[in-house]
Every structure is written in structure tokens, then in C-alpha cells.
Amino acid sequence: MNFSFSSKVKDLQRCLQVFMDEHIYPNEQRYHDEIERNRWSPPAVIEELKPKARAAGLWNLFLPDREHGAGLTNLEYAPLAEIMGRSFISPEVFNCSAPDTGNMEVLARYGTGEQKERWLKPLLAGEIRSCFSMTEPGVASSDATNIEASIVRQGDEYVINGRKWWSSGAGDPRCKVAIFMGRTHTGRTDTGRTDKDRTDADRIDPEKTGRSAAPHQQQSMVLVPMDSAGLRIERMLTVFGYDHAPHGHGEITFENVRVPVSNMLLGEGRGFEIAQGRLGPGRIHHCMRCIGVAERALETMCKRVQARVAFGKPLAEQGTLRADIARSRMEIEQARLLTLKAAYMMDTVGNKEARAEIAMIKVVALPAVATNRSSDPDLVSITSLVSCLPSTSLSKRYFQRISETSEGYSSLRITALTRSAGESCALNCDSADPMAERTTRMTPANIVRECVTVTWFSTTGAFLTVVTGGF
Ligand SMILES: Cc1cc2nc3c(=O)[nH]c(=O)nc-3n(C[C@H](O)[C@H](O)[C@H](O)COP(=O)(O)OP(=O)(O)OC[C@H]3O[C@@H](n4cnc5c(N)ncnc54)[C@H](O)[C@@H]3O)c2cc1C
């Protein structure tokens, strides 16, 4: 394996870094302020920056398809995704944000000419956004063969019924289309026997069971315009209290929604085939963006522990902090190398052959960064925990949250030892980095609660990451 980057990639890295310095980092606070003023409206700053990114040639870099995108391999795109991941606002500015990236790849790879014209074109131009509706509240969706929503053909139309949740991006008014996963083959036989009643031989022999099919051939993906009659967004979900506006994660009811049969992607029963194609690149993108935010978190913390003095010496010289920083450095390096290896494998031997490595980067690399391997949860929470998160906006939100917790946690542990219980402690973040600019006031009760949250999230977050797949 040779991980040295070509001159094309090095040039793009340089351009991206310059753009990040000139346009992205200085506008993070403005983005945050605009969202605070109007939560479910796209911030003007993003729309202002998009034409600049496009003019700089930093647009649709994720798309390996030369006709529509930059034509970069996974290994070439990975270091660029890492740079974009350093800021929660940048992926969208470069039209490289999830779930649009995965959806655009699906359309580019499997869409008909008509589907590309109607949906891929405006997505590539950054004029609209999209969501992916697979997960359902009613079934364990980590096993997508469980998906129950139905797609039933009636004449020239499909009639769609089901309830979905965690449809990321559905809260954005620019979200105009959903890729919806549901059953075209119900798994129910003419005799009324259900899937459970059927033998394994029945399941894998569609001839015997009429409309039923092997479990991995029962699901299909269909394009559903968000303004379809019968489509209702019931609520936006929160992740640890954050709604991630204006992106959001929607719970959506589909009640007798009708779409033309031409909206079917690839063909009935081919949903898993599409999902497989979508998963690999999306996971590389997520992992590299997470590594980007982990790097930034580590840099932020390194600056901070050098600048602050406690008990007569910089925090950086206190206790085990240096070892913890080294451990985080190693975990990030390991995660990056493993992700680059997965990207290299995808490029050289294909997604199928690389499936073990694609799984590893979530099952080993990201949880290694995400979970607390060190003895000091404050350090891990500031550098590493954020990196398990599946979306960059989430990372930002969670970074803020964890920054509060962990920056406070170091000081507070000492303080808590020297102060009597019940006394409150003031924590001040005065770093010049806007990501570290938080002031919070915590009571010992809050500290305990936060520690529990961090520990719980360390395991649950890794767990979620494993099952979240490429969204
Ligand atoms: C922030 C966020 C964004 C998301 N965005 C999208 C989106 O855009 N579109 C979409 O369709 N979905 C989205 N999801 C949903 C996500 O894909 C699902 O949560 C995931 O697929 C798991 O499904 P489930 O929630 O039904 O969990 P379940 O399947 O009910 O699983 C419950 C628990 O069991 C564990 N588990 C499952 N199988 C095993 C096993 N074999 N061994 C051990 N443990 C197991 C899981 O890890 C999980 O902790 C998002 C989720 C989050 C948190």
C-alpha cells in the first residue's frame, strides 16, 4: 500500500485548507448565530459560501463519477473529507454533506435519465437537499430485512405506506426528495402464511411463494417527493437533547402516498443491492470527517492545556495529561490508517472484497477513537468521543457539549476534592478558538450526571456507530 498523495490531491488539500482559513472558520459563529435566530431555515451564510466554493473548484469532490463529480478515488477523497470534517459547516458548503452524498451516488449509479434530470441535477447544483428513509420505529432496523413499510404497485403507480424515523435532513425546507426503502415483496404467501411460518426453502424460492422472495430481495428503494400528498412529518427527533436544526431527523408518516412507477430505483426487490453500493463510500466519508473533528479537538485541547496554569505549572505538565494526549494521538493515527486502508481496498479490489475493512473502520477504528481507552475520561471526551458521531453538525453540537463537560471535568475533579459537596464551581473557557468558547456553571450534581452521560455515550455512541451504517 502506498498512501502518498498525488499532486492533484495535494493541490486540492492546499486549496481546501486556504478556503477553510479564509471562509469556513471565520463564519462558524455566524452560522451558529443564524441558526439560533431561525432554527428551521437554511442559514444565509451557507448559501453565500457555496458559490465561492464552486468557483474555487471545491465542489462535489466526493463523487467518483467523472461525468458528474471530481472523479476522485476513495483514497484520493479521504484526506479531503478529513479537512472538511474539521468544521461542522464545511461539508455542505462544498456540496459534500450526508445524506445527499450517498443519495447522489445512488442516483448517479442507478438512476434513469429521467430521475437524474429531475433529482440528481439540482442536488449536484446544491439547489435542493434530500433524505434517506429506511429506519422504522416499529422494527429493529439494524436488520433491514425487518423493514415493514409497503410499496404496492397499482397500475402505473406505487402506493406507499409506512412510518419512518431518523430521516436525517428532513427538517430542512430545501429537502425535496426522499429515497424510501420498503417492501415490494411482502413475504406473505397466498395461503396467508407469514414469513415466520415459512421454511427456509420457501424463503429462498420465490417461485413457491408468489410475491414473496428471499429476504434480501424483498426490499426496494423508491423516490418520493417530499411534497407528496399523504407524506407528513410528525416531529423532529433530538439526539441527546439537540435537534440539529435546520438539518433535523424526521419522523415521517407515509399514508397512501402515490408515486409513478418510474420512481423505482434500479428495480423491485433490489434495495439491498443499492444499499451495498451506498454503504462503503459513505462510511469512508464519515470516518474521515470524524477523524478531522478529532484532530481539531486534540489541537484545541493541546493549546488549552499549555495556556492554562494550575497549581504553579501548565495543565500540560499535570498528572497523566501528557500520556493521555499521546494515547489520543495514537488512536487518531490508527483510525486514519485503517480508514485509508479500507479506502485503498475499495479502490483496488472493490467494495465486496473490502467489506471486512469497511466493517473494521466502524467496529474497530472509530470506537477506538470514540470510547474511553485511557484512564482519564476528560481527555477522551474532548478529543475522541466526538469522532464517533455520524454527522458533522452533530459532531459540532456534541463537541460543544463534551467540551463543556470535559474541560470542566479536569478542573472539577481537583476542585471537587478540595471543595465541600454542594458548592458550585465556575468553569470558564477563554480560548480564542470559537469551538472552545463556552462558559458554563456546574454543580456537583451536574458533574455526576455529566460523567454518567459521557460514560453512557461512550458505549452507546460506539454501539450506534456500528449500526448506523453509512448515513
Ligand atoms: C443521528 C442519527 C442519524 C440517523 N440517520 C438516519 C437516516 O438518515 N436514515 C435512516 O433510515 N436511518 C437513520 N438513522 C437510524 C439508524 O440507521 C438506526 O438507528 C440503526 O440502523 C439501528 O436501527 P434501530 O434504531 O432500529 O436499532 P435496533 O435495530 O432496534 O437495535 C437496537 C440495539 O441493538 C443492537 N444490535 C442490533 N443488532 C445487534 C447484534 N447483531 N449484536 C449486538 N447488538 C445488536 C444495536 O446496536 C442497537 O444498539 C440515524 C440514527 C441516528 C442516531
In a few lines, what is going on in this structure?
This protein is an alpha+beta fold. Helices cover 49% and strands 15% of the residues. It is built from 14 helices and eleven strands.
Sequence-ordered SSE layout with sheet pairings:
Blueprint lengths: L6 H18 L3 H10 L6 H12 L18 H12 L4 H4 L6 H11 L2 H12 L4 E5 L16 E5 L2 E12 L6 E9 L16 H5 L14 E7 L5 E7 L11 E12 L10 H37 L1 E2 L2 E2 L6 H33 L1 H16 L6 H7 L8 H27 L6 E4 L10 E4 L1 H25 L3
Parallel strand pairs: 1-4
Antiparallel strand pairs: 2-3, 3-7, 4-5, 6-7, 8-9, 10-11
Helix pairs in contact: 1-4, 4-9, 6-7, 6-9, 9-10, 9-11, 9-13, 10-11, 11-14, 12-13, 13-14
This protein binds flavin-adenine dinucleotide (FAD).
The site of flavin-adenine dinucleotide has 22 residues, from strand 1, strand 3 and helix 14.
Please characterize this protein's 3D structure.
With 471 residues, the protein is of the alpha+beta class. The protein is 49% helix and 15% strand. It contains 14 helices and 11 strands. Strand 2 (150-154) and strand 3 (157-168) form a beta hairpin. Helix 4 crosses helix 9. The two termini are 28 Å apart. Flavin-adenine dinucleotide (FAD) binds at residues 99, 132-135, 140-142, 166-168, 239, 249, 390, 394, 463-464, 466-469, 471.
